[in-house]
Each structure stands twice: as C-alpha cells, then as structure tokens.
C-alpha cells in the first residue's frame, strides 16, 4: 500500500517512509534498471543536492573512443585485409553517431545563457583553435609540408568534431521549439548530401550530414535508453552485429568508404545526385540500429574503465598526432603488420594508447588546452553567472566530458 492509503483515518499515526526492497537494491547496484538521466542522488554536507555521474554514459564514451582509435589503426590495413576492411566499415557506421547522440542528449539544457555560452567558448571554441594550430605545425614538421597554411575555416583531421559540436549546440534552442525536429534535421542532411557547392569551410558537409544524430539525442528520453538496455535487446544485438559484419565483408571491396565520413556530397563521390538522399537515409537507419545495439551491450555498472569516460575528448584529440604520425613516419611499412598477428597487435596497441590518453595524469597535463578557465576574457557578470550555474553545463560541450545534466560529452 501507499502511505496515503495507510493513513487515511483521522487518528492514523504517520508511518515511516517505505524502504526499498532488497531486490530493488540489487537492481540498482547492477545498474540494469537505473534511470539513465543524471539527477540528484544525495545531499552534500552543506545541504544542496549533488549530482552523480552515470556509469553507463562514461562506459559508452570510453568504449566508443576505443573503437575510434582502433578504426584509425585499421585504416592502413584495409587494402591487404578484407576482414580489417569489414571491421572498419562496421565500426565507422556507429562509433561517431553514438558519440553525437550522447552529446545531443546532454545538450538538452543548453539555453544560450551567458554562463553556458562562456563554457561553450572555453570548452569547444578555444580547444578548436589550439588544436587546429597544433595540428597544422605538426603536419608541417612530421608531414614534411612546411607551407601548409593555418586555416581556422578548414578543420584538419579530428578538429571537425569540435566545430560541428559548437554549431550544433548553438542551434539547440531552435531544435527545442520546432514541431518536428528530427524529420527537419534529416531533410537538412539530405539536402547537404546533394549540394556539392557547400564547400569545405568549417567542414559544413559533416556538420549538416551528422546533424540528425545530434537532434536525435536532443529528443531522446531516459526511457529510450532503458529500452535498448533490456536483456532482450542485448540478445538481439548479437545477430544484428553478426549480420552487419557479414554485410560489411561483402561490401568492403564494392563500396566507397568515404560515404561513412559524410564529408562529401554524392556528386563529389562520383555518384548521381539522387543517391545522396538515398544513402543519407539508408545510412542513418543502419547507424541508428547499430548505435542501439552498441548501447545494449554497454555495461551500466562502474568498472575499471568507467572513470576514463570523463577524459575521452583528451584521448580523441591527442591520439590524432599518433594516428597521423604513424603514416608520416612509415610505421605500417613493416610486412608483419599486414598479417593476422600484426593486425591484432595494432588493435591492442591502439586500445592501450587511447586508454592511457584518457587517464587523469594526461588530463591534468593538458587541461590548460582542453578546459581553460579564461576568467580574464569575460565580463564579471558573465563569470558570476557561469559560477552560479554550477558544473551542470561545464562538460556537455565536449566529446569526452562529464555527463552531468547539460554537461560536456561526446
């Protein structure tokens, strides 16, 4: 019975609050039935509620960034290994969409207030400038291209995600007020895929073609994540992933992998214009299915790598120097790397490196570039508002940050 029905009498004594059942406690510890959305989980020593990180999202971000690093490690092996090519296509179908969905989900509270805009600048715009310049000098030095220009309008390699996230977050208030946000975002993506004149400025093709995944994250609710984390979903995910790998194995020598990068229009890929719309919708559907399967197998409890989920942006940006350096310096020229044993070795090394780059010591070392405070750059009223808003939005603007409500994620 509820407390209301047990205390309806005039002289009824108030009853103590109900305690959760042992079964509920077990479910909570296992993480299988915990609500996905972060929320108050207790009270601090001074009284105000505090928020707890949800292990599910930290686990998802860590596992996704490991797949990103492995995908980059497999790229030079695709020409000699059809299996590596199949794994590459499968992973590229869902790893960045999964990051973007999480980013959208934790951007729902973005309201363009001064504090949140300030965090967007320090958490996204400033790191974009820093790493765009750093990558440029790295390419000049390691890539033996001394004339390669610095261009903040033409993101190089991994920095496209930062500028895309900056644009997506700025448009969040718009997607929150339109009646059909996801269909409109899909229409925008389709139009971009058939528009070869968009150009390379700010990598707008990627910004627009990946937009539906961000908008999808904005419209998702905690119960949607609970749905894909059920036992039935985990069981179903296995044959779906197996079918995806088999299809990728068949498609690897027949399909242009550039479709998965979403950085070109159909015409730029030497395909008829109408195929852009078809491929955009088809790949969105495939990505959505595999993202759901990926989330189904993400653990909901705290594990040894859970804390690393807060540092995935560090791993994402820093591993780019090694990923590109491996090509510049000819690391893949060794014949043994193109054998099954070499491919396995490369995969394990990629996982170990990206794990190290997400650790707290690395984050402390590079925090000046990733999370600058820049108090000197803002008016005092904006600074005060940012401080008053607490940390709820401080990490939502990153691929790898926290998943507090409105927090940085990717």
TrEMBL record:
- Keyword entries, A-Z: Membrane, Transmembrane, Transmembrane helix
What protein name is recorded for this chain?
Answer: Acyltransferase 3 domain-containing protein
* Cited InterPro entries: Acyl_transf_3_dom, Nod_factor_acetyltransferase
The regions listed as transmembrane in this protein's record are 56-74, 86-107, 119-138, 150-168, 180-198, 204-221, 233-252, 272-296, 303-322, 342-362
Q: Which residues form the Acyltransferase domain?
A: 55-358
Cited PANTHER family: MEMBRANE-BOUND ACYLTRANSFERASE YKRP-RELATED
In Pfam terms, one family for this protein is: Acyl_transf_3
- Statement: the UniProt record of this protein carries the keyword Transmembrane helix: yes
Q: Which GO terms of the molecular function aspect are on file?
A: acyltransferase activity, transferring groups other than amino-acyl groups
Q: Where is the composition biased (Basic residues)?
A: 401-410
- Would the keyword Transmembrane turn up in this protein's UniProt record? yes
Q: Where is the signal peptide?
A: none
Region annotation (Disordered) maps to 1-50, 389-410
């Amino acid at each position: 019975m509820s407390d209301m029905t047990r205390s309806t009498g005039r002289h009824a004594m108030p009853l103590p609050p109900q305690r959760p059942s042992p079964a509920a406690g077990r479910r909570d510890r296992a993480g299988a039935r915990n609500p996905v959305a972060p929320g108050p989980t207790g009270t601090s020593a001074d009284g105000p509620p505090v928020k707890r990180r949800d292990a599910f999202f930290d686990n998802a971000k860590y596992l996704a960034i490991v797949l990103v690093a492995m995908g980059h490690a497999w790229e030079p092996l695709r020409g000699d290994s059809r299996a590596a090519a199949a794994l590459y296509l499968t992973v590229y179908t869902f790893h960045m969409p999964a990051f973007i969905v999480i980013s959208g989900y934790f951007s729902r509270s973005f309201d363009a207030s001064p504090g949140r805009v300030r965090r967007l600048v320090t958490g996204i715009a400033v790191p974009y400038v820093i790493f765009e310049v750093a990558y440029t000098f790295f390419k000049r030095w390691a890539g033996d291209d001394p004339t390669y220009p610095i261009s903040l309008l033409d993101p190089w390699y991994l920095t496209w995600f930062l500028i895309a996230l900056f644009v997506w977050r700025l448009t969040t208030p718009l997607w929150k007020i339109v009646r059909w946000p996801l269909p409109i975002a899909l229409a925008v993506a389709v139009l971009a895929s058939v528009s070869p004149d968009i150009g390379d400025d700010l990598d707008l093709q990627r910004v627009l073609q990946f937009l539906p995944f961000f908008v999808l994250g904005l419209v998702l609710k905690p119960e949607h994540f609970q749905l894909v984390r059920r036992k039935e979903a985990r069981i179903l995910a296995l044959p779906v992933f197996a079918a995806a790998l088999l299809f990728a194995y068949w498609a690897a020598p027949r399909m242009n992998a550039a479709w998965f990068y979403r950085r070109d229009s159909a015409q730029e890929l030497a395909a008829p214009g109408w195929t852009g719309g078809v491929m955009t919708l088809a790949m969105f559907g495939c990505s959505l299915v595999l993202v759901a399967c990926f989330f189904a197998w993400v653990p909901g409890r705290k594990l040894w790598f859970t804390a690393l989920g807060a540092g995935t942006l560090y791993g994402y940006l820093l591993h780019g120097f090694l990923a590109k350096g491996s090509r510049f310096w000819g690391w893949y020229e060794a014949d043994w790397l193109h054998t099954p044993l070499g491919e396995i070795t490369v995969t394990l090394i990629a996982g170990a490196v990206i794990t190290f780059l997400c650790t707290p010591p690395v984050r402390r070392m590079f925090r000046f570039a990733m999370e600058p405070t820049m108090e000197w750059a803002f008016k005092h009223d904006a600074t005060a508002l940012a401080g008053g808003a607490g940390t709820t939005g401080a990490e939502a603007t990153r691929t790898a940050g926290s998943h507090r409500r409105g927090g940085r994620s990717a």
